[in-house]
Amino acid sequence: MTTKPYREPSIIIIGAGVAGIAAAVTFKKAGFEDFVILEKGSDVGGVWFWNRYPGLTCDVPSQVYQFGFAPKADWSRIWATGAEIQRYHADVVEKFGLREHLRLDSEVTDAVFDGNRWDVTVADGTRHRADFVIAATGVLHHPFTPDIPGLDEFAGATVHTARWNDSIVTEGKRIAVIGSGSTGVQVVSALQPDAATLTQFARTPQWVLWAPMGLRQSSLVTKVLLASPALRDRVYGLSLWASGILADVVLRPTWRRRLVQRFARWSLRAQVRDRKLRETLTPDYQPLCKRQVVSGTYYQAIQAANAELVTEGITEITPAGIRTADGREHEIDLIVFATGFHPHNYMRPMNLRGRDGLTIDQAWEKGPRAYRMSAIPGFPNLFTVLGPNSPTGSISLQYSAELTSRYITRWLERFRAGEFDTVEVTEDATTRFNDAVAEAMGPTVWNTGCNSWYFTEQNTIDLWPFDRKTMTAMLTEPDDHDFLINRNAPARDSAESSTR
Ligand code: N01
């Protein structure tokens, strides 16, 4: 094959969360230096930067909730707090020399493909040009606040958990928490002890799996792992392997799934003795169907003397509180919205235009759709890391982001070798992948009859229905048959060859 001379690809990574950090470190390790990371927040970390509500803890054990290239021996807890995870991200950024590539407070407003390269504009008007765009924009970063009548007239304070305001006083207040997902459960547990009253408005009860989330990592374990990097890497590998059990449990209806579901039911029975409250807290769908909530403190918190669970629908917010469908007015000083996100927005509201002016809204008119989480037809030289169908809730997100980043690196290497100028996944390959996804969703627990944020408006499930081995096989080497590989793009201006 004839190849063009060696040239360095310029790359723009959008987002400095788990996906963006994984991409940047992977590219750097492969010898690619001409990249910038554009991050809309004022620090790195993505969800771990934006979320700092009281009680924020990762419900995935720390030994697996970390990058494979940066295993940390000295996690202070088995399930780390949000603050510790955020410090970890900052340390990784320093350790791998990403600061010089980072542009904080840089929200991308436009990313337009001109037939040859990408033209990317930031909110302050700064423009960058590059050969490749990597969209590492995350899933859960557009908070959703329901439009409840009367909200504007409320005399107290309001806050969404994903935009916590540290000046808010919670101690001694009459607090309402709206929402019963992973966030609602954590924030109820954290705020109840010091609140005057805590009222949780739960539209749909959740199964809450018991786990001792406050458990510290023993100092002996830390000492041993610090002394032996080989052992530390083995523990990471083992944790990753063990997490495969979760994928198996959610993907296939076996005795293993039934066992976990029995544990969820037991968690409720063992901790809530009051029959009436237990009935109110019992969901009418299978455990694991929604994103599983894990907590060792929630059921105690909601049974405390100053706590109340309200399942009546909210009809309006009054200046003094919240009125429910039974006509009751709950007097409230602070409303905490733990009401989740617009989860399928991905790069939007960015003006993202691919080949021939195709907008992402046009391409995704029928919902978000990508090839193996990583490429979108009509958008040449653009890859997504933790894009549509990412394995939230089944496979390590760090593992998936690193795997996808290595896969993209294969394309960068081929570009560098002069093998192509633009590469774009085909419509056909994307349809085949999405058909396989739809079929594989059949036996998953997510498809057993509950309403969850996993569902798109088109009623598809935006998750990864395969195991880790299949994911690894799909994202190890690019399959050229699935791509339009173009070697004839017009020659580019050599003065424009850098992102910086
Ligand atoms: O959001 P959610 P979340 N009136 O969408 C309710 C991750 N996470 O922030 O179930 C009343 O799950 C809504 O009710 P319903 C994790 O992946 C991870 O809690 O739709 N209620 C629901 O109860 C998680 O799944 C960690 O009927 C309204 C809640 O708001 C994801 O983030 C920690 C309402 C929203 O729940 C999102 O979790 C925290 C209305 N109008 C989160 N509108 C880790 O530890 C919505 N609700 C890793």
From TrEMBL:
InterPro entries: FAD-bind_Monooxygenase_sf, FAD/NAD-bd_sf. One of its GO terms (molecular function) is monooxygenase activity. Keywords: Monooxygenase, Oxidoreductase. It comes from the Bacteria. Its EC number is 1.14.13.-. Pfam families: Pyr_redox_3 (PF13738). It is an enzyme of class 1 (oxidoreductase). This is Flavin-containing monooxygenase. It comes from Prauserella salsuginis.
